[in-house]
Amino acid sequence: MNVLLGAVAYDQKVVTIWNGFRTWLRACGLDFDYVLYSNYERQVEDLVNGRIDVAWNSPLAWVRARRLAARRGVPLTPLTMRDTDCDLRSVIVVRSDSAVRSASDLAGRIVATGAVDSPQATLLPLSLLRSLGLSPGPEAAGPCGPGAGVTVRRFDVGVGLHGDHIGGERDAARALFAADPAGRVDAACMVDSNLLLFGREGTLPAGSVRVLAQTPLYDHCTMTAHGASPGIARLGELLLGMDYADAALRPLLDLEGLKEWRPPRLSGYAPLERAVDEAGFYDADGEVTAAGYRP
Amino acid sequence: MAAVDLADLGLDEGGHLLVARAVAALAPGERLTVTGRHPALRLHLAAWCRASGHQFAGDGTPAVVKGGAADRRWAGAARAGDAAGPPEARADQRWGLAARGALVEAGGPPLGAHWSQREHVWADIAPQLYAAAAASQWDPATAVDWAAPAVAVPADIERAVVQLMTYLVENEQAALVIPARLLSQLHPHYREVMQLLASQAADEARHVEVFTRRALASGGPLGTSSAGGRASLQTLLDEPDFTTASFLLSVLGEGTFLDLLRFIADHAPDRVTADVTTLAARDEARHVAFGVSHAAHLAACDRSYLGTLRQAVERRHAALQDTAGLNAEVFDSLVLLAAGSWAPAAIRHGWQAVRDLRARMDEGRRRRLAYIGFPDDEATELSALHTRNFM
Prior knowledge:
Chain A is built from nine helices and twelve strands. By secondary structure, chain A is an alpha/beta fold. Chain A has a six-stranded mixed beta sheet, sandwiched between helices. The radius of gyration of chain A is 20 Å and the shape is globular. In chain B, the strands form two sheets. Chain B has a four-stranded mixed beta sheet, with helices on one face. Chain B has a two-stranded antiparallel ribbon with strand order 5-6. The interface between A and B is medium-sized, with 30 and 26 residues.
């Protein structure tokens, strides 16, 4: 009963987390090991190809895994997600004193986003703009003409990490207040928790921004297995049984950013599926079609 | 239903403290409604709830439904003894560096402190001695009258003073390193002992300073450092056990030094020499008091420990048997200092004074050994085995 899990090394702490979980899971009798990936695309491909049993997937990785697996007839089993993966929202903010009063006022202006593959700071907020009748387009395409065009200025930090690295998101927020007018943007996109974080850490001083629009609720990471096996089922049980009162586990849970694992749900990914299609990020079969995306 | 109003305070400027405070009073599953005028209140609150293990209820007035996991951080927490003392007989390594009496979350690295049993480090007088030490700290810059008009100290007497100061610095450096080493392996649950050892090391740092300054006052080079003297001090540094190290250093070594420092002060040819040795002796008296009290405390708990202390003295004596012991130039300097001149009659007087000094040192050691619990005959025997290097 052995299980091999893949996780993306978006931060050094990932080693601490999975070394710790591995020790704990093995002590519970599960022959568990993990491998690290430098980006989610390769992890998803390996999951669908059966090279790993389980992938700790970003929401975007889930979308691609689902599409690839459907095309190839590979069964995927959602295993678990964190309590903190449920019911997120992304927002588009402007400076408090901005003349932009509604999303439609963004026409002809510059919106800053996170990395090209960030669900929360790029794909979902841009989908929101489209749903409001705007046409976001890359800055490289030149200034948008009259009409509903919005220039998107991307902050591509940690491409391939699907936005796990929040550096791009923070840079986008900072660009709202860039001293150089050429570097300044009219609006910035971020997830609700980073709106709070950037406020607390002073990147966005209290009262300095106004929320212009917000996405519907969506879900974030999800753990996905290739097929089903007793080992995979046991891993799911053990993760769901992790207790925050356990002093050996608590520091690991804190690092991973959860209090408890929850049973998986797949109802929260529809907005992202739509955003991926609109942006042409993956095709219906899960192939990468995003222009210039090279993790 | 519980409620909190944040007025216009945002969760990005401290509002979460009010929410967390109100949630803390609830049982898991209970609701707290949150009102306020901050434009991003709902967004902030939803994000805060997610990160804090609570449920956000966004229909109507926003509310927090307390989650079950948040309080579980403290499920296995325990108090690290009683802040006011007395300290516990055994200090738990898992308490780590937590304050005595703190509520300690389970987990975290264990401390790995060598000395974590009360009887091996404690003395009931430690709190009072620390208070006295804190109240008696002096500033080397002002406590000594460095500008006192220089009396014309004869050159040979001055050389004797410089030699004695050189010797004192060497010994005080040993007396600094030893409590510092004990300190690094002591469980901080025994807070007053930790504080006392820290002040002891700080005392010795000042002594090193003032003795060095006095040695350099006449502008000449420092005196000599003998191999035998250093060998004697090295045996103190090598002593692995808390109580035997404290016993050899503070009871026998610093106890003997009390008489030595007073002797130098009594025969000092100048005000500065008298000041620095008097100030140092005052500090050393506290170090001796702790050493004696601690050894007596342990011996009272475990009579057999007297045997361990005895063995430590015998072991050190054996290790030093083949060394010269005291630097001859130090001994000669003491005689000359007490003599005041090279006149034969004066030297006879000086010689007698140093002999009396050694008798007083021996008497002091026997008295302290008896207080610790040694029978008189054994105290006499052990005192005689003490190093010729005094410390």
